[in-house]
Amino acid sequence: MRRLAVFILAALALMTPALADGIDAEQYEAFGAAEVEEAVPDSARDALGGVTVEDALDADGLLSRLADAALDALRGAVGSAAASALKIVAVCALCSLAAPFAAGEAARYITLAGCLAIAGAAFTEAGALISSGAEAVEEMNAFSRALLPCLTAAAAAGGMAGSAAAKYAATALAMDVLLSLTRTLLLPLAYALLAVRTAAAATGSAALDAAGKLIKWLAFTLTALVASGFTLYLSVTGAVAASADAAAARAVKTAVSAALPVVGGIISDAAGTLAAGAALLRSAVGVLGCAVAAAVCLAPFIALGARYLMYKAASVAASAFAPGPLAGLIADIGAVFALVLGVTGASAAMLFVGIISFVKAVGI
Q1: Are the CB atoms for 326 and 314 separated by under 8 Å?
Q2: Side-chain half-sphere exposure of 269, counting CA atoms within 13 A
Q3: Rounded distance, CA 177 to CA 226, Å?
Q4: In angstroms, what CA-CA distances link 43 with 71, 135, 140, 226, 330?
Q5: Radius of gyration for the chain, computed over Cα atoms and rounded to the nearest angstrom
Q6: pLDDT at 17 over 70
Q7: Residue 1: pLDDT band with limits 50, 70, 90
Q8: In the beta sheet, which residues pair with residue 24?
Q9: DSSP designation for 204
């Protein structure tokens, strides 16, 4: 009877109120899930609607909203990109028609006029899309400052204090580094690439052409290095810390059960129940984080991707009849869109990897 009474009292003491969908209400507040919901950027709210942590338990519903938003963005982006590409091909066609009537220096002026016309048609929208990509990176970084502490707290409550801290540090540092690089180096390099490649095509300068290739290589290499370094560091530190957490959790569980034969087993099982609740919350917040990150970069990603593909197609079409420098310039402008696309995609990918590493981790 005494053991039964102890069991009942311990069970009552460990009972906590829960939300109807299975998320523990106290953990929801303690781990900062409400702050995560408040930090969702406006662009993600527009795409996903009034999304909450509870909505994330229905992953199919979030995917459906994302798919609808992607289709809407795709319709507008493809039409706009196609219209821009057609304008550029029309410029190339005019230059091609005028070329037979020019000789010597006049032919160079036709190429120069074509380069300036292409630059004028592309630079305005290129600047807008570069800005949208930078804004998406900043929004994801700001959202991660509310998301990562919540995931870290939930992971620590599940018995992964060491690995959670390591993953938080790695993800937060990588996001800050990429944001700083984007602001101070990568976006200025994108504008520099536009200017240098336009000047190289207009003047035929080999030095400017080499400078443009160097800028392009540097920008893509820096982006790849940050993403690769983050993935490698997260894998190594996460694996080491996770092993230490698992060993510590087993030791504590065994010690408690041995020291308190009856109540110790109850406490150990209760700790497992609380860890399971933390894991549920961690999974829901992780799904929400992935959905929000995808929604934030959805519109700029689709717009940049559509511009890149259309400009590549325009470059191939122009190479059939237009002077060589014009087709090369169109391809180089497409490479600028690819650069900003890569920076935006790298930021989203790093946040995805960080979230998944939290969600897939196994605790007590």
Answers
A1: no
A2: 11
A3: 8
A4: 15, 10, 11, 26, 30
A5: 27
A6: no
A7: very low
A8: 18
A9: -
